[in-house]
Amino acid sequence: MSRETDPLLEANVDQAELDKFQSLAKRWWDPNSEFKPLHDINPLRIRYISERCQLPEASVLDVGCGGGILTEALATAGAQVTGIDLADKPLSVARLHLHESGLTEQIDYRQISAESLATECPASYDVITCLEMLEHVPDPASTIQALSKLIKPGGQIFLSTINRNPKSWLLMVVGAEYVLNMLPRGTHDYAKFIKPSELSGMLRSASLSVSDITGMTYNPVSRRYRLGQDIDVNYVVHAQAPQ
Ligand code: SAH
Q1: Nearest CA residue ID for atom 22, ligand 1
Q2: Nearest 10 degrees: Cα torsion 49, 50, 55, 59
Q3: pTM for the full model?
Q4: 3-state secondary structure of 94
Q5: Does ligand 1 lie within 6 Å of residue 18's CB atom?
Q6: Which domains, and CATH codes, for the chain?
Q7: Ligand 1 near 35 CB (within 6 A)
């Protein structure tokens, strides 16, 4: 398995955040593991994305792809996808899983940061996805700047992260990690949560325009997720690059 040169010498990475995903990587594709929430929300987010852009034949970059749950769904929808992450173990799992799913021709996984890839191949992607990743990086604005360099003129960018307020702390940290045990304790650092207004500001500073913000909510009784207007906790953003 080829490693890129010194990917971890990057400034915009928190090793402790990567370690959380390294140690759990083997269970990434187990739908009843710590990654159950990602498996459960995947149909909703692929529907959100495919309703807002053309995935068949598109050149797509999936930033912070982890074990490849979203990456494979994008490829299954017909896209040619590059998945990037800085944690090597989830990437190994993702590469192995490709053989099981028969998607080796459509997906390329690389251990490289968005910032380095932006220097290597600017304006290369029709669509960029960066889901559930920004709340793990030290400087999300730097990631957004990199995405704006990587996207082709007129391209579509999809982001998701967690809002920062007492309700999101209660549900995502106390509820998900301590009461329902849906996620390992310490998965999320409240201080890194990002308000939609802050994310919109980062996008505007990178010359990207916000077309939509939609909430993703979890009902602990029905154990179902849905998309809707409530952006208090998890939310998805669709942004566009200028022509
Ligand atoms: N986007 C995937 C995985 C989300 S888990 C999905 O939604 O299904 C968060 C991922 O972000 C992990 O794989 C972690 O290794 C990665 N990550 C954390 N910090 C990163 C950074 N600075 N650069 C790239 N990837 C990072």
Answers
A1: 13
A2: 0
A3: 0.95
A4: helix
A5: yes
A6: 7-159+194-240 (3.40.50.150)
A7: no
